[in-house]
Write a structure and sequence with these properties.
Strand content: 15-25%
Largest sheet: 5 strands, antiparallel
CATH architecture of the largest domain: 2-Layer Sandwich
Mean pLDDT: 80
Number of strands: 17
């Protein structure tokens, strides 16, 4: 035997067998040899037992290591594992399952799972267990777990009976985030569907209101009777109100942009606070907090004021018996996690405007619906359900988003996040000057609504212009090619059959890069605006617009073209 070979039970057994064989060879039949042979045989058996014990110890160690691996996988799995009796008693549970329920495992075993669920969801758990034991098939259900001081957690249970049939094995997983994402997707789809419907309705209403606004402006100059002018003004104001409602619908549905300026939100918040101090009930306590490092935002001041007014009025209505209304603004930096669920919002620096109250609060089941159009928690006489949905659309059109946090009896906080910009710019002034009369310039008017085009033609001709009309982009392109040398200006709608306004403008620019073009549209999305501005159109009028604004825009464009030729 080699001196450096380890002395293992197997080696010892070989040595004992060698001695046994040597003894048999030397003393085959003497009593002493017999005893010696028996002793050596016992030695061999002892060594074999040691070898077996060693193998058992190795197998036991392997089993223990496997058990530890299994225990780790079982206890620290990303889902909860339960063994449940037919009445819901917890027989076995892993650490994850106990953590999901917020209780120690030792205290959980032996208690019924239904005790930890919302009372309204306990029947669902009972039905889940009954179906498992009755059918013997796999079943699933979703239940809500309500932990004190925390928002509800949505749990999914998937279970099947054990082979013996006395218990069932169930997997418990937290699907709260998935359900929230699905609800956000459903909300976005509802908003998109209603937006498409609203945009179509708004387009038709715009075409109805446009002739009214223009004709009333024309009639005021023709009617000398004061009473008659007063009646005309009533009609005009009603048409303007209708146009404003349409703009609200468009702001909600498609995020239609109004005129925007780079502005400081501090001035807006101070004005809002001044209004509330003068008009809100005295039993309300108003708090105001404005950070000093706020950067400006690019926004439509009127629309942003409307958003804040809606939120503050809702806060006031939520505190009929008094309370505290707080208004504050902070600069915040949003990361990927912050903007998740609010596409297409980008990360970066934002201004957060918060309107908080200590009022009645909003039920958790209603929180996902507060921005839906026509949904309201107010009584019918006090709410239409459009305020928050319109605010949602306005903020979205500005590249931001709104969030809400609320609990019943503990008030609500609405947060408006708006992206900031670096520089300030001048405020765009409204067109209020008087338009000079035309000198017979030929204008090509393009609109697929005869009532609109006929009215605009009447207004323009009364102001001293010549007008030819096309019913769509294709007809307009043909007319322009025929009278290219005479046409001084093109007035075109956006939404038309065969060839829309954007395509027409692109074709006209290819024929004459210096042609004067005015777009008149009530529905202009940011993508279309970018395309049209790239084609050199800097004059875009809202539809409907009144007679004065139309004539001023036409006069300005013609004057600009005249100056460019000089």
């Amino acid at each position: 035997m080699k001196t450096n070979e380890p002395i293992t039970p197997a080696v010892r057994r070989q040595a004992a067998e060698a001695r046994w064989n040597a003894t048999l060879d030397a003393h085959p039949s003497t009593p002493e040899a017999y005893l010696r042979r028996m002793q050596q045989e016992l030695e061999v058996h002892q060594i074999e037992l040691e070898m077996q014990n060693e193998e058992l110890r190795a197998a036991q160690a392997e089993v223990q290591a496997g058990l530890e691996r299994y225990t780790d996988l079982y206890d620290f799995a990303p889902v909860g594992y339960f063994n449940l009796a037919a009445d819901g008693e917890v027989k076995l549970v892993n650490l994850t399952g106990a953590a999901l329920l917020g209780i120690e495992r030792a205290r959980l075993v032996g208690r019924r799972l239904g005790l930890f669920l919302a009372e309204s969801d306990r029947p669902a758990l009972s039905e889940f267990l009954s179906q498992i034991f009755a059918s013997g098939n796999r079943q699933s259900c979703e239940v809500a777990l309500r932990l004190e001081g925390k928002k509800p957690v949505i749990l999914r249970l998937d279970g099947r009976p054990t082979p013996g049939g006395g218990e069932c094995r169930a997997v418990l997983s937290d699907v709260t985030e998935r359900r929230e994402m699905e609800e956000q997707l459903r909300h976005a789809q509802r908003v998109a569907a209603i937006g498409t419907l609203s945009a179509g309705i708004a387009h038709d209403i715009n075409n109805t209101l446009a002739p009214i606004l223009m004709v009333t402006g024309l009639l005021r100059e023709k009617v000398a009777d004061p009473h008659g002018r007063e009646l005309i003004e009533i009609v005009r104001e009603s048409a303007v109100r209708g146009a404003n409602v349409v703009q609200m619908l468009l702001a909600f549905s498609r995020g239609v942009e109004g005129e925007r300026v780079v502005m400081e939100v501090s001035r807006l918040l101070k004005d809002m606070m001044a209004i509330m101090r003068e008009t809100f009930p005295r039993e309300l306590t108003l708090k105001y907090d404005l950070a000093g490092d706020l950067r400006p935002v690019c926004a439509n001041p009127t629309q942003l004021h409307q958003v804040l007014m809606n939120l503050c009025l809702n806060a006031r209505d939520a505190m009929p018996n008094g309370g505290t209304l707080s208004l504050d603004a902070r600069s915040v930096t949003l990361n990927e996690e912050d903007v998740k669920g609010h596409p297409p919002v980008q990360t970066g620096l934002y201004v957060a405007l918060r309107v908080g109250d200590t009022g009645t609060g909003i039920a958790s089941d209603d929180l996902q619906r507060v921005f839906d159009p026509f949904f309201t928690t107010k009584v019918r006489e006090k709410g239409t359900g459009l305020g928050l949905s319109v605010s949602f659309g306005i903020v979205r059109s500005h590249g931001g988003f709104i969030t809400v946090e609320s609990e019943l009896g503990r008030g609500s906080t609405f947060s408006v996040f708006l992206p900031t910009v670096m520089e300030k710019s001048a405020v765009i002034a409204n067109l209020v000057e008087t338009a000079p009369a035309g000198r017979g310039e030929l204008i090509l008017l393009v609109d697929d609504e005869p009532m609109v085009s006929d009215t605009m033609k009447l207004v323009l001709e009364f102001a001293g212009y010549q007008v030819i009309i096309a019913g769509d982009g294709a007809e307009a392109l043909q007319l322009y090619r025929q009278r290219q040398d005479e046409v001084k200006l093109v007035l075109t709608d956006l939404m038309m059959p065969l060839m829309d306004g954007a395509a027409l403008i692109h074709q006209l620019r290819a024929l004459n890069p210096k042609l004067g073009i005015i777009l008149v549209s009530g529905l202009l999305e940011s993508e279309k605006r970018t395309q049209i501005e790239a084609d050199g159109v800097d004059c875009i009028l809202p539809k409907p617009c009144d007679r004065q604004r139309l004539l001023v825009a036409v006069a300005r464009q013609l004057a600009r073209l005249e100056n460019a030729r000089m």
